[in-house]
Design brief:
Blueprint: E1 6-9, E2 12-15, H1 23-28, E3 31-38, E4 49-54, H2 67-79, E5 83-87, H3 94-106, H4 111-121, H5 129-141, H6 143-154, H7 161-172, H8 189-196, H9 219-222, E6 238-244, E7 249-253, E8 256-258, E9 265-267
Parallel strand pairs: 2-5, 3-4, 3-5
Antiparallel strand pairs: 1-2, 6-7, 6-9, 7-8
Helix pairs in contact: 2-3, 3-4, 3-5, 3-6, 4-7
Catalytic activity: O-phospho-L-threonyl-[protein] + H2O = L-threonyl-[protein] + phosphate; O-phospho-L-tyrosyl-[protein] + H2O = L-tyrosyl-[protein] + phosphate; O-phospho-L-seryl-[protein] + H2O = L-seryl-[protein] + phosphate
Main location: cytoplasm
Family: Belongs to the protein-tyrosine phosphatase family. Non-receptor class dual specificity subfamily.
Length: about 270
Amino acid sequence: MGSGMSQILPGLYIGNFKDARDAEQLSRNKVTHILSVHDTARPMLEGVKYLCIPAADSPSQNLTRHFKESIKFIHECRLQGEGCLVHCLAGVSRSVTLVIAYIMTVTDFGWEEALHTVRAGRSCANPNLGFQRQLQEFEKHEVRQYRQWLREEYGENPLRDAEEAKSILGLLGCLPCAGVPGVLAPASEDYKRRSQRGGALGAPPQDPAPLRPFQSPALAHSFPHLNLPSLGCYPATVYFSYVCKSMCVCVRVCIYTYQCMQCEPVYM
């Protein structure tokens, strides 16, 4: 599924079986490490470091036991400034589950917030119900120990993943905006009502929130479907945001609306 690998965080990608064999795409994204998780996982390309995990996309498949080796593999790659591709067959369930566990470990996110972070970059992400239950159990019983282990093993994380992920969720409207650099507080409810019924779109709200430059090099890569001229420092005012049914990110900027043209918006 998808049209190429998807960047989730700097140096971390999710893709499908085809992406894992696309040497040109791998080189373009500086991918030196590949984590393969599917029924017949095995190394396929020379000059690439592999972690291969044979696993079925079945609710009964135990992926939790592979979390630690996967987190270690991904983190060591990214600390070296290189790129890691995590893939299964479609890049929807198994690979997504391992990346969610990684994001939970390098941030303070629960599994649902981590899933939203992944979906921001890869809208088709959808772990099966068994994997979701395993992530819930990981959040309840193990993730704190994993975070402590990662700090003891590698020291403080220099990658600023927590800030990156919070910026992504703030843009999606999944986190409160206060205290998240570069993320805007929502506009007034009055302006939202006027905007939704098509009235006075050009009139400024009573509490406009000027868009500050994003301090996130990953955002422009994570949200290519926004099609903004310059996502990194777009000089406009964001009045409200929403996501469409397929989890594409959609943002209304001033009187212009940038949204996926193939799906119906659902207001948050």
